[in-house]
Amino acid sequence: MKKIRIFISSVQREFERERLMLFDYLMSDPLLGLFFEPFVFERTPAMEHNVSKVYLEEVDRSDIYLGLFGQSYGYEDEEGVSPTEREFDRAQELSKTKLVFITNHSEQERDPKELALIRKAESLIIRKSFDSPTELKASVYTSLVRYLEEREYIRTSPFDATLHRAASIADIDEEKVQRFVRQAKTRRNFPISERESIETILTHLNLIQDEKVTNAALLLFGYAPQDYFISSHVKCAHFHGIEVAKPIPSYQTYKGDVFQLVDQTVDFILSKIDLEVGDRSGSTRVETRYEIPRAAVAEAVVNAIVHRDYTSNASVQVMLFKDRLEIWNPGQLPFGLTPEKLKKPHSSVPANLLLAEPMYLAGYIERIGTGTGDIVRWCREAGLPKEPDFIQEEFFKVIIWRKNSQATGQATGQAAGQAAGQA
Fold first, then answer.
1. Which of 3.40.50.450, 3.40.50.150, 3.40.50.300, 3.40.30.10 would CATH assign to domain 4-150?
2. Most buried residue, 19, 98, 129, 219, by most Cβ within 10 Å?
3. CA 76/CA 92 separation, integer angstroms
4. From edge to edge, which strands make up the β-sheet containing 97-103?
5. How far, in Å, CA of 363 to CA of 141, rounded?
6. What is the pLDDT of residues 350-374, one digit of tens each?
């Protein structure tokens, strides 16, 4: 990731200690050092060129202007303007993010031109004051963390509950919301009428705040969720053998909201596996049964889509082989939950609670943590050759073995190593 450049501007003689302190702090802090690259005069080689011009060019290249204003106005050029004010004006002209920190001196203690610069800055931005280098460092840390949060470099709230900066209620499909309400009312006795406004329904689901919608709202009801979350699609591939091999007989990339993704993915799998059809000798009704229980397929697909890590650039991947079905999702099990524990009753800890709740209301999932255990039970009852495998590596994987399973661990490992690049 390209680092965010910070230009530290001040009267050099007055703030030499603070400038060097901030430079060393930003370079060494475990969090800020990952994202920011500071520029200060003291850490640059001697230059033969026009120093003021070079510094203004550094402002141009920077993302953030960080100004320290105190008592002294500093050196003045032929027009009576200091380098610090030139740099501030350039940052303002280029609409750079500006962070200004001002010493706690009285107006009488400041140079009149410095006081005028401070007042100009105060009319354009919110500034902070400080008394000591320690206080300055704390204020800079707070401001930069807020910068990272607002631009979603880091999050302090869960992904699904985070308000999307660029989206609004206009990006929500009213017809999708109404369809959900009808389904949730039938399945779970949802208390809100479909005639209520979208705002009322989304508020009830905790998916909107001050007309800003959450990431979960876009994934559930957005017109085009992949416009906002480019990797939120599902890749499905069908192979005739037991390894990933080209050409791929059938390959699909599905897009849409999470309900559509589940339905499309389940349909893809069911269309490729064997369907046993009973006879009519005892009844006019013909019973049908998939070789892998439909409920097990649906549960595994829903879990992959609901519990995945949506901050990852990877997508959910489904691979159907001659001997097995593999469903991968970019996610990690919650702390304390192991693949082996998934086969037994366990607490339900959804990774995306605001995404999972509407899926529950619409009848796609259960709350009580039995889903993975149910997959094991359904596969056992269907007479499949072995229990499903749950594997936590870089991806979380569910492997359901088909009736004609003759796979070896080597074959599965080969598929795992190749699939990400081919499917």
1. 3.40.50.450
2. 219
3. 20
4. 36-39, 4-10, 64-69, 97-103, 128-130
5. 45
6. 789 899 999 999 999 876 567 888 9
